[in-house]
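seq as requested:
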Amino acid sequence: MIDSMNVSAGLQKQLVDMASNAGKPINIVKQQEYDVIKKAKDTEHLKQELLETSRALNQEMKRINTNIDFSYNDDIQGLVVTVKEGDGNKIIREIPSKEAIALMKKMHDIVGLIFDKKG
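struct tokens:
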């Protein structure tokens, strides 16, 4: 019905949002919007902190001639530690392992599918 009226996309979205929030107290709706924005900012802030920490740790490891590398992994949204041989060619250990990272990514995808509002 809204489509048949000559309504702009912005106004149409606003009308749909108003209809979907009908009956909810306005403070709950605003709180939900605030929580979504805050979570996005917190996630980005955490990622930046982890990237800065990994850079600082890598500089310290170079200073003491150690082949330990710290990096940020977007799939698990966390730090990964790689320990290499003295010449730096062979990886001795990765924490978490590639298998664990793949498992975490699959679990994240499955949880996303289970709780996807569109599905």
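The chain has three helices and three strands.
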